[in-house]
Design brief:
heterodimer; A: mainly beta; 9 strands; about 40% strand; B: about 375 residues; Peroxisomal Thiolase, Chain A, domain 1; about 40% helix; globular; OB-fold domain-containing protein (chain A)
């Protein structure tokens, strides 16, 4: 796979890596096989794109190790005309459908040692979404 | 392929129970065998629908434990885990066992023990089904419901109150279900003023955490009359998946697993949604009743909320939905729920639903796992 992306300064050098497939579609996160059972052809760094909020919620009943309250959103990026959706925490609870947001890197999104999932089984850093002023 | 009959059914009291998983499963299993008048040594296949007895209680190996506790050894046994749709998947497995000729008598028992855990712990056990990208952001099933509810209300210009009316309706139905966790009505103001859990959804938009179990006994229809004069046939059944990563779905208000599983079930039963007389839907959250009622073809997309507003889905309406009280008032012991949905459907089509009885020859149950990730749709027809 080739890396089509360049790192964004606001992302502390980290990439929000999505996969591109032969039919042109892009998914975040990536999968070993995409539409039609085709292997991905490359990656796209979403961290230097802006996205639009599709929907959001503020959860008050959060599981162990998760901030409370926890505002999360489904957002949609436009990568050269290709829509790509992602989900994640929002930096503020002041967000609305249609708002423009950008990814902001966070070193630890929840406490890896507090929940049921084995801490070593996955990564715990990632990108929150920050409204674009 | 053999036509498959359900000749016995049971469900335990749902709610906060002192018993642990082994005893809960045995309680429903014994009651089901008693209901059909069948001896445990006649059971050839024994399936246990259960999501997480290991995580909740530290008890694994429950199918073998149940076989022993029911004196059903040497029956073949297996645990069916499909998260919240473990019960529906168990119905599918039990149906397959009879339809294929592999078993002449199959007992399915679904159960879960959850209430000894805190709400946060139970929520985390359930949320462990999510993709790592979702889990690390603290996504839970209730938060998916909040995200989807906001999108639905915005997209279809539906009033927030319509979601509350689902809760009001299902609580009203639950009053007449002696096995329900909540046998009390709630009014709309109570629902709309309850604490926010996942904005715009509030406490009464969510099902409770529940202990309980339910069971079904299945055999070939060709021998069903040897056991009972009244039984139900599984005339249609289908199972399907949707994306594991919820936000990758093209339309957040459509559950592809519901669409695909119901198409299979309708085709097998040679009926359409207009032929269904009564339905049990997976109202783990009020918004799910809208999505399923539309994706099953009962109502046009974006119109499910109007049906609730107009009383179409009331017990005395044109298409009663969740006469049992649904997961909302009956409770949601994960592995038991899909089995209990078919228990209610069975009771309706054999005319044994007591005060909940409606005029029904054909019933449909739709059991959803994850946030629409896995779905089983089952259609029953009464044979009286």
């Amino acid at each position: 796979m080739s890396d089509e992306s360049t790192a964004h300064d606001a992302t502390d050098g980290h990439e929000m890596e999505a996969y591109r497939y032969p039919d042109g579609s892009i998914t975040y996160p990536g999968h070993p096989l995409g539409p039609g059972g085709q292997e991905p052809t490359g990656t796209v760094d979403l961290s230097d794109h802006v996205a639009e909020v599709v929907t959001w919620t503020t959860s008050t009943a959060t599981p162990p190790g998760v901030r409370q309250p926890n505002t999360v959103a489904i957002v949609e990026f436009d990568v050269d005309g290709e829509p790509v959706r992602a989900i994640g925490q929002v930096t503020t609870d002041g967000v609305e459908i249609g708002d423009e947001v950008r990814p902001v890197y966070c070193e630890e999104l929840r406490d890896p040692d507090a929940g049921i999932r084995e801490a070593e089984s996955q990564e715990w850093d990632g990108f929150r979404f920050e409204p674009v002023e | 392929m053999e036509r498959v009959a359900i000749i016995g059914a049971s469900m335990t009291q749902f709610g906060q129970r002192e018993e642990w998983i082994r005893d809960l499963l045995a309680e429903a299993g014994i009651a089901c065998l008693d209901d059909a008048g069948v001896s445990p040594d006649a059971v050839e296949h024994l399936y246990v629908s259960n999501m997480a007895s290991g995580e909740f209680e530290g008890q694994t190996g429950v199918p073998n434990a149940l076989a022993h506790d029911l004196s059903a050894v040497p029956a073949y046994t297996a645990r069916i885990d499909q998260t919240s749709s473990s019960g529906g998947a168990g119905v599918y497995a039990a149906w397959q066992s009879i339809a294929s000729g592999a078993s002449e008598m199959t007992l399915l028992v679904g159960g879960e023990k959850m209430t000894h855990r805190t709400t946060a712990e139970a929520t985390d056990v359930i949320a462990s089904l999510t993709h790592p990208v979702e889990y690390k952001h603290g996504l839970t099933l209730p938060s998916f419901a909040g995200l989807t509810a906001r999108h639905y209300l915005d997209k279809y210009d539906a009033p927030r109150e319509s979601l509350g009316k689902v809760a009001v309706k299902n609580h009203r139905n639950g009053v007449d279900n002696p096995h329900a966790q909540f046998q009390k009505e709630v009014d709309l103001d109570t629902v709309l003023e309850s604490p926010i859990v996942a904005d715009p959804l509030r406490l009464y938009d969510f099902c409770p955490i529940t202990d309980g179990s339910a069971a079904l006994l299945l055999c070939p229809e060709s021998v069903a009359r040897e056991y009972t004069d009244e039984y139900a046939v599984i005339s249609g059944i289908g199972g399907a998946t949707d994306t594991h990563v919820v936000h990758e779905r093209a339309d957040p208000t459509t559950m592809g697993g519901v669409v695909n599983s119901s198409e299979q079930a309708y085709e097998m039963a040679d009926i359409g949604p207009e032929d269904v007389d009564v339905a049990e839907l997976h109202d783990m959250f009020t918004i799910l009743e809208f999505l399923q009622s539309e994706d099953l073809g009962f109502f046009e997309k974006g119109e499910g909320w109007k049906a609730v507003e107009e009383g179409v889905t009331d017990r005395d309406g044109e298409l009663p939905i969740n006469t049992s009280g649904g997961l909302k008032s009956k409770g949601h012991p994960l592995g038991a729920s899909g089995v209990a949905q078919v228990y209610e459907s069975y009771k309706q089509v054999v005319g044994d639903a007591g005060p909940r009885q409606v005029d029904a020859e054909t019933a449909l149950a739709c059991n959803v796992g994850g946030f629409g990730n896995c779905v089983t749709t089952t259609i029953l027809e009464g044979q009286l």
